[in-house]
Write a structure and sequence with these properties.
Sulfite Oxidase, Chain A, domain 2
């Protein structure tokens, strides 16, 4: 008999976030449980499911290296529970996010590269091999879910950009359009900016997301292109990217600029380091209300821990 030892980042899929439970809970919180799930969420057809030039490329083959024994969070739950502050300060931004036009969409690659260029999202998608990865998502607000993202490794984009050897960081920037994103009319330091070190960007886990649940990504998820680094808190996962820049200066990220006492550049998950206003020791699995212990690097330590050796004096956890 062969015995299989699960890795630290694997969780049993039986710990799913049931859709009905989640929707009922959200309804209660909003005072509308009696309305039922149908009244809370319109059809997913409204959530970015219109015709998409890349639709024939989905679903992509799943990369089993990143298999997690944990149930996928239902799409209706995920699509209706997102932080996308450009469209509102609540989680219910799906309807508002539909104002974002994701075609045409161009990504500019510039900075310390051999040659700056611009590429349309569909040309970018055609230039890579898409794959599906089942990843944990851990929000800094101490909730979590599991999502089957489709996309390609960030390192493929880095390699295609041909950065100069002097480049130390990758800076990401989202769209800026106050006409469709009402919160961008406010005082926060828009547009949203995030950053990674070159080592983080080249790590196998770093993933550029173009789809989810076997089809092009819903707008509420950050269509048409977002970042996912599963060992970091979710605010690092910048949505609706329009610019990728290579630089030798550490980027000042959106949340660093907005709340420097609470958020920093690194934002690696660590249950032993609390947020200034709450504990990070455990997390709520959305839908069930179940609380589970949080793990260091969100369970992905075997893939990423070596990158931070020698950086112990850095505020790696927030």
């Amino acid at each position: 008999m062969h015995y299989f030892r699960r890795k630290g980042w694997e969780i049993a899929e039986k710990h799913a976030t049931p859709e009905s439970v989640f929707l009922n809970r959200r309804a209660l919180l909003s005072g509308g449980a009696a309305l039922g799930a149908g009244a809370i969420l319109p059809s997913l057809r409204a959530f970015g499911q219109e015709a998409d030039p890349s639709a024939s490329l989905y679903p992509a083959k799943r990369n089993e290296l990143y298999k997690i024994e944990r149930e996928v969070t239902p799409e209706k739950v995920n699509a209706a529970y997102n932080n996308f502050y450009e469209f509102g300060l609540s989680k219910n931004i799906a309807k508002a996010a539909e104002a974002l036009k994701v075609r045409p969409w161009t990504i500019k690659v510039d900075g310390m590269v051999e040659k700056a260029r611009e590429i349309g999202i569909d040309d970018l998608i055609k230039s890579v091999t898409l794959e599906e990865r089942l990843y944990r998502h851990r929000c800094v607000e101490a909730w979590s879910m599991t999502v089957p993202w489709t996309g390609f490794p960030l390192k493929a984009l880095v390699e295609a950009a041909k950065p100069l050897s002097s480049a130390k960081y990758v800076r990401f920037e989202t769209f800026m359009d106050p006409k469709v994103a009402p919160e961008q009319r406010g005082f926060w330091p828009w547009p949203y900016v995030e950053g990674l070190t070159m080592a983080e960007a080249m790590n196998d886990l770093s993933f550029m997301v173009t789809g989810a649940y076997g089809k092009p990504m819903a707008k509420s998820f950050g269509a048409p292109l977002r970042l996912h680094t599963p060992w970091k808190y979710g605010f690092k996962h910048i949505k609706s990217i329009v610019k990728v820049s290579f630089t030798d200066q550490r980027p000042t990220t959106f949340w660093e600029a907005s709340g420097p006492r609470e958020y920093g550049f690194w934002a690696n998950v660590n249950p032993k380091v609390p947020h200034p206003r709450w504990s990070q020791a455990n997390e709520e699995v959305l839908g069930t209300g179940e609380r589970q212990p949080t793990t260091l690097f969100n369970g992905y330590g075997e893939f990423v821990a070596d990158m931070y050796k020698g950086l112990e004096k850095e505020p790696l956890w927030m």
